[in-house]
């Protein structure tokens, strides 16, 4: 991507809400790994922004959506319509990260 003229490209990393919040299971290593993916994307996005390469992270949850929900977010992020978006987490989770878990 960097060697293209003009330099351009988009990468999307898929992570999990476990990198953002406790998910009700004692999966410490899993949560830490997903948080690391998010921080990697954010840091790398800053490094490569001047080279025309964008990186973002989508955060799917398996219960509230399906693969098409995540795929549509990824398609948007790699499209020209998202050309000014980089270093972001796009939470594809039906609002679960905003929830307290109480109804």
Automatic annotation (TrEMBL):
It holds the Pfam family adh_short_C2. One of its GO terms (molecular function) is oxidoreductase activity. Keywords: NADP, Oxidoreductase. Gene3D superfamilies: NAD(P)-binding Rossmann-like Domain (3.40.50.720). It comes from the Eukaryota. InterPro entries: NAD(P)-bd_dom_sf, Sc_DH/Rdtase_CS, SDR_DHRS6-like, SDR_fam. The keyword Acetylation does not apply. Belongs to the short-chain dehydrogenases/reductases (SDR) family. This is Uncharacterized protein.
């Amino acid at each position: 991507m960097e060697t293209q003229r003009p330099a351009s490209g988009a990468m999307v990393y898929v992570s999990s809400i476990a990198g953002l919040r406790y998910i009700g299971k004692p999966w410490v290593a899993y949560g830490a790994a997903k948080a690391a993916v998010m921080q990697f994307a954010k840091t790398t996005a800053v490094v490569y922004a001047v080279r025309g390469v964008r990186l973002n992270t989508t955060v799917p949850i398996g219960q509230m959506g399906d693969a098409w929900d995540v795929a549509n977010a990824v398609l948007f992020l790699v499209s020209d319509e998202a050309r000014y978006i980089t270093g972001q987490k796009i939470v594809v989770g039906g609002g679960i990260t905003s929830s307290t878990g109480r109804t």
